[in-house]
Amino acid sequence: MRKVYVVGVGFTKIGRFFDKGLRELFAEASLKALEDIGNEKVEALVVGNMMSSSLSEQDNLGAVLADYAGLGGIPAFKVEAACGSGGVAVYTGFSLIASGLFDVVMVSGVEKETEYPTRIVSKGLAQASDAEYEMFYGISFTGLNALVMRMYMEKYGVSRDEMSIWPVLMHKNASKNPYAQLPFEVTIEQVKNSMMIADPIRLLDSSPIGDGAAAIILASEKFARKLSDTPVEVAGVGMATDHIYIAYREDLLKLKATIEASKKAFSMAKVMPSQIDIVEEHDAFTVLGFINLEDLGFSERGKTPKEMLQGRFHPGDKPTVNPSGGLKARGHPVGATGVYQVAEVTMQLRGDYPGIKVQGEIGLAHSIGGLGTTVTVIILKR
Amino acid sequence: MSMKFSIPRTWRERKAHYVLEATKCSKCGKIHYPPRIVCDNCRSRELVRIKLSGTGKVLTYTIQHVVLDGFRDYAPMIFAIIELEEGVRILASLTDVTPKQIKPGLRVKAVLRKIVEDGKLGLIRYGVKFKPLEG
Question: End-to-end alpha-carbon separation of chain B, Å?
Fold first, then answer.
């Protein structure tokens, strides 16, 4: 297997953009990434996206976007794994280069969510769950996560206010992030009093609905040196899936797919959790932020909220978790998020990240599709 | 008036939705809901159809205020994961219950109820909901 490097990155601010659709968002991110490699050509395009079909009536997305950005008839296709589409797109792009099929590949993630009212977008997002046996009954994606949050709080004896350290820290990190969707701080009081979405999940426990696009350019070792002075190695990748029907899982407080995917990624990269300096993980809801850190091996079951209240995982700690502000406050343009994470970790390692900077050599990006149904873990090394 | 719900699709899944039909592995005995074609425990393909008891207890629940398109008339909706006597777990709505009555451990039984209507003239979807066993 050949070595793979990230040589270029680009992304848009995340938010509600009335003047930008899927094409414009993609173009903005991908042209920035191309500038990062001196506008050299890419040989193929992989696009991570969830809802172009359900919300924008657009399939065949790879060709649509390659055409619009003038990439010139190259192989281009969409990869869909719900909210984990971006991570799976990076995983796919990695495989295309590691296998020797191509030397320079663009991986992008793009999502346009804000055209419709919340009930329509919620339906699109709920399609990440089991259509016949979960969504059939009307449960939303937030509802599914609420079942997990209640269980987590009851089993480990964690209070509402203790859980709130997650959104408080994420918003604090995002307040320094120039491209974040929610770059402002919130208090424990504000979290407690925010609108109830699906008890116990409140508005400020939830990642926001937003538009955005990110792009990275991956290259083989030979091309990496030509295209970048600061290539970052994709040292390990791992992916796993789990039962879609969440009630079928033996333990709802662990995501087996994260555990499996991270084992593979750590083993390929030959590193241990204790060596990781930066983590960008998939905190779609407060409870997932904590569970992810436990599944990835950074903290003990049920103890993460209390540790975080004492400063663990804040900027300056190892690892620093979600210096971007995470899905919670940087934002979560669903299929783009996994690509944002890899772009962010790459910039941290090469030293040009525009928000809170983390010193370090090794970073990890963790992306989830569905409620832990599809997970990718990607480890990057300077 | 267009129909959003497909009739054959709804019909195809009727037994699992109406009477909690599951599969049981003839080799290792594991019960699967929703029904499977291959046992995920021992990979046997010799599965038989069984009906689940429909009585169990609430493991965890949520009161969902923001509902999906088409469910506005039913808001807020209560959902739970219920562990049946057989050890199998089901995701379902709770009915005939007030939020104050619900707590983990509450004993419940399955009843057939309307889930949602496809407008005034379209298909009505039915399925199992759970209500408190006592009271």
Answer: 42
CB atoms within 10 A of CB A160: 13
The ipTM of this complex is: 0.96
What is the rounded distance in angstroms from the CA atom of residue B132 to the CA atom of residue B57?
9
Task: Name the CATH topology of A128-208+234-381.
Answer: Peroxisomal Thiolase; Chain A, domain 1 (3.40.47)
CATH 3.40.47.10, chain A: domain bounds = 4-116+209-232, 128-208+234-381
Active site annotation includes A243: no
Q: Is the dihedral of CA B5, B9, B13, B14 positive or negative?
A: positive
Block means of pLDDT (10 residues each) for chain A, 382 residues, are 98 98 98 98 98 96 97 96 98 98 98 93 93 95 97 98 98 98 98 98 98 98 97 98 96 98 98 98 98 98 98 98 98 98 98 97 98 98 96
- Which is the catalytic residue, given A171, A282, A332, A366? A332
Q: Which residue of chain B is at minimal alpha-carbon distance from A200?
A: B62
Catalytic (active site) residue A83: yes
Nearest-CA neighbor of A244 among A161, A73, A368? A368
**pTM for this entry:** 0.97
Alpha-carbon gap, residue A124 to A122, rounded angstroms = 5
